[in-house]
Specification:
mainly alpha, two-stranded antiparallel ribbon, 4 strands
Length: about 100
């Protein structure tokens, strides 16, 4: 089947704008395929880095303290922009969901 909707060349002041495979806007990575794998990997990486920082710098490991620290510092890393890139199981995103949940363990 012939593709009747080829990608167009966009111009700005008679200069052709170059294509990009992904773009980062407001901290969210948007790919040309609209898959969110890179965005989720970035969220998990930042959350894991924050966990390492917390474990190095907090000597008190009481459950109530760690829960507050988690809610204040780690959860925002995982939930930023989730309304846009929310992986749903209906679309076969179980591996992405399990990757996000692995941070909580």
């Amino acid at each position: 089947k012939h593709n009747r909707n080829p990608m167009k060349e966009y111009k700005l002041n008679d200069n052709i704008l170059e294509e990009s495979e992904q773009e980062k806007d407001l901290g969210i990575i948007i790919s040309d395929t609209l898959l969110w794998n890179d965005q989720i990997k970035q969220c998990v990486t930042k959350a894991n880095q924050m966990i390492c920082w917390i474990l190095r710098n907090f000597t008190l490991r009481e459950k109530s303290v760690m829960l507050r620290v988690y809610k204040a510092l780690i959860r925002p890393q995982l939930e930023y922009g989730v309304q846009l890139w929310n992986p749903s199981p209906e679309h076969g995103s179980w591996s992405l969901i399990l990757t996000l949940e692995s941070v909580q363990r």
